[in-house]
Amino acid sequence: MPLVFFAKAPSNIALIKYMGKKDAARNLPENASxxxxxxxxxxxxxxxxVPGQGLASQGSAxxxxxxxxxxxxxxxxxxxxxxxxxxKVLRHLERTRAAARELLPRFGIAxxxxxxxxxxxxxxxxxxxxxxxxxxxxxxxxxLTLAGxxxxxxxxASFERAxxxxxxxxxxxxxxxxxxxxxxxxxxxxPWVRWQGEEVSTIRSSLxxxxxxxxxxxxxxKQVSSSQAHALVKGSPLWPGxxxxxxxxxxxxxxxxxxxxxxxxxxxxxxxxxxxxxxxHTAEEPFSYWEPGSLRVLRALAPALREDRxxxxxxxxxxxxxxxxxxxxxxxWEPRLSALGFExxxxxxxxxxxxx
Length: 356
Ligand code: PMV
Fold this sequence. Notes:
Layout: E1 3-16, E2 21-23, E3 28-29, E4 33-50, E5 60-63, H1 82-103, E6 119-126, H2 137-150, H3 156-165, H4 167-180, E7 192-196, E8 199-202, E9 210-216, H5 226-232, H6 242-259, H7 262-281, H8 292-301, E10 312-314, E11 321-326, H9 330-338, E12 343-348, E13 354-355
Parallel strand pairs: 5-6
Antiparallel strand pairs: 1-4, 1-13, 2-3, 4-6, 4-7, 7-8, 9-11, 9-12, 10-11
Bound molecules: (3R)-3-hydroxy-3-methyl-5-(phosphonooxy)pentanoic acid (PMV).
The site of (3R)-3-hydroxy-3-methyl-5-(phosphonooxy)pentanoic acid has 13 residues, from helix 5.
């Protein structure tokens, strides 16, 4: 029987944004961030262990542009990674393999006896289209980290038990995922996650379950990558003090989430999204992700922030607007958001990565 591992990890949306790196090689952030893990907007990875063919080149891996052979209930699209993207993915798989072989025994998970010459064949895809403006790096690197770690375990059941029961294992693998793609470290757990320095942990919440909508303002590929943005923001006159402000906001939002204070969460998220985009707009080499439609949606939603139970509105490094509302009021919000004239993606909150 061929050994195959399937992992799923959702995308996450930061309410307090990670922006600016302290250490670019290890993706260490300048400030704490807080995010909500999504559910069905996710990446799926299939990792097939192909037995050795008598070759001594243990550890080789290959990416195949094919959809994983497991359904998650939504259509899966295979991304066009390009040579650089494939290289990044395969390097991360090697990093994961090395880290997992050291980490798993610490959590009582025996290692699989990897055969010399065995090859890892990787297939991956996303439930959101490549050009939908939803970053796939967070979900795909999280799913990759999970599949790669599981493939190092002697026994899948003991890996799954530890994954479900040991927050320490999830957070140790989040640190591995972070090196491949910063914000992916928040996609392994959920629904509320805080990341500060090397530490990733969940936040206790008294908020009601939330529904999540993405207003697809534009499907154009972005001109400035998030890696470039992390460097460029430091040239803004608003940069001094930003890490401290964001840390303080992360503290306050975690506390508001724990209290179930939806209005406060919505106001802090709104402020932080505007602050991050203000850094972009005021950088020495200014740039913007906003399209006219982004501003139109933000202006239309601004008055709702004064409502009793306001929507949480935010934008990542892109033009699309993310809106989270109480799940019990999703049917009321959906036509309100549709009336703004953009295609909507729908999702809810999730618990993070898992083997499927
Ligand atoms: O993980 P990166 O390097 O793609 O950075 C993500 C940055 C934002 O999405 C803009 C904010 C965040 O915290 O997710």
